[in-house]
Amino acid sequence: MILVRGIILIGALALFSQDCLGHDTSSVKRYAADIRLASPSFSDTLVPVDTSIKHFHRYNPAYRGYFDQLFLGNLGTAHKPLVYQPARQIGFDPGFHQFDLYRFDAEGVKYYDAKSPFTSLFYVLGLQQEQFFQVTHTQNITPDFNVGFDYQRLSAGGFYKNQSTDNANLNAFLWYAAPKKPYNLWAGYIYNKIRVAENGG
Q1: Whole-structure pTM value
Q2: Strand locations in 26-144, DSSP E?
């Protein structure tokens, strides 16, 4: 059953990733050059997508930054920085940041300008039912209108009883740039589900 679902998912992504205009997208050089990242805070700046495999083995978000994070030994559990990090925003902060690495936020949304459809898949399978799945798909509906989504799923059974984690994140986004470029519309929907079992220490 899982194999059938995987084949259907890959088939559906392959179907939606086809270029409906008939252009040749087989050239990696052209393909990578056609996709740009943007941010609402820097709306005039477009950055090429990083297509390298550097640090692909660092799939655990606790190991992705410049400094490692202290966590409970299971993918998706609470974490704490090993090096002091000051608050990023001014004002009241309740201090609940133990799951920040595993969730999407508005500042981390990536908007794309893709001349051809772009899909990125990442899957890791580890010990104790540890799984990390990530998919990104984006495409321009018109030359000025782009839609896409990011989906991420983390789960792990853990080494002890009641240590399982099941985290799911969805980020759906769209970007509309007016033809004469005086205005941009950036919109997104973010859903984060974090479920972590407690075993009492």
Answers
A1: 0.73
A2: 35-39, 42-48, 69-71, 79-81, 111-114, 118-125, 131-142
Contact, 170 vs 190, CB < 8 A?
Answer: yes
CA dihedral 188, 101, 35, 8 (to 10 degrees): -80
| DSSP element (H, E) containing 170 | strand 165-177
pLDDT in tens, the chain (201 residues): 665 555 555 555 554 454 444 444 433 334 444 566 666 665 556 777 777 777 777 778 877 777 778 888 888 888 888 888 787 778 888 888 888 888 998 888 888 888 889 898 999 888 878 899 999 999 999 988 999 999 999 999 888 888 899 999 999 999 888 887 778 888 999 999 999 988 876
171: closest CA among 156, 196, 193?
193
Nearest to 166, CA basis, from 100, 74, 98: 74
Are 136 and 111 within 8 A, CB to CB? no
